[in-house]
Design brief:
The structure is a single chain. This protein is about 65% helix and about 5% strand. The chain is mostly helical. It has one domain: dinb family like domain (Four Helix Bundle (Hemerythrin (Met), subunit A), Up-down Bundle). Strands 1-2 form a two-stranded antiparallel ribbon. A hairpin with a 6-residue loop joins strand 1 and strand 2. Helix 1 runs parallel beside helix 8, helix 3 runs parallel beside helix 7 and helix 3 runs antiparallel to helix 8. It is globular. The N and C termini lie far apart (about 45 Å).
């Protein structure tokens, strides 16, 4: 297995977890929050996909799927198109409402772009510095692992909230 195949497999696992959390749910179920401060499934999936889109587009030096494929307009969220959900208040979390088809469609579009990018990577590519704002500077390998870890955590949280929803 090459490093590109390993990274692609990791992103495929995220895609599977996302669909496991959202498939078959309606907008009201996707907006369910265990309490007023909790994240909804819709917000978690939107956020993890926005982070993947933002971070992978940055390292790939491409435009984000969110804007180039019209997802920002389709979602019509009440905040700037550049937002990824990082640091969102409970009110902003509650503003993310969607259906499973849109959430899954956006995630799948980002997934396709991510896989197209990572399948071209070689071992030596992972050492490229992609963010000098940190000490030590962040390499491409570290950035991709960070996205994978964050996305898997949020996909797991979405699955947990789905479980709570199904048991109430």
């Amino acid at each position: 297995m090459t490093i590109a195949e390993l990274i692609a497999d990791s992103f495929e696992r995220i895609r599977q977890a996302v669909h496991g959390a959202i498939d078959g749910l309606g907008p009201e179920e996707l907006s369910y929050r265990p309490d007023a401060e909790a994240n909804s499934i819709a917000w978690l999936v939107w956020h993890l996909t926005r982070i993947q889109d933002d971070h992978v587009a940055d390292v790939a030096r491409t435009d984000q799927i969110w804007t180039t494929e019209g997802w920002a307009e389709r979602f019509a969220l009440p905040f700037d198109q550049s937002e990824t959900g990082y640091g969102h208040s409970a009110d902003r979390v509650g503003a993310v409402e969607s259906d499973a088809e849109s959430l899954g469609g956006y995630h799948d579009a980002v997934h396709r772009a991510t896989i197209a990018y990572v399948k071209k990577l070689s071992d030596s590519d992972l050492d490229r510095i992609v963010d000098e704002r940190w000490n030590p500077p962040v390499t491409l390998g570290v950035r991709l692992v960070s996205v994978i870890a964050d996305d898997l955590q949020h996909a797991g949280q979405a699955a947990y909230v789905r479980g709570l929803l199904e048991r109430r």
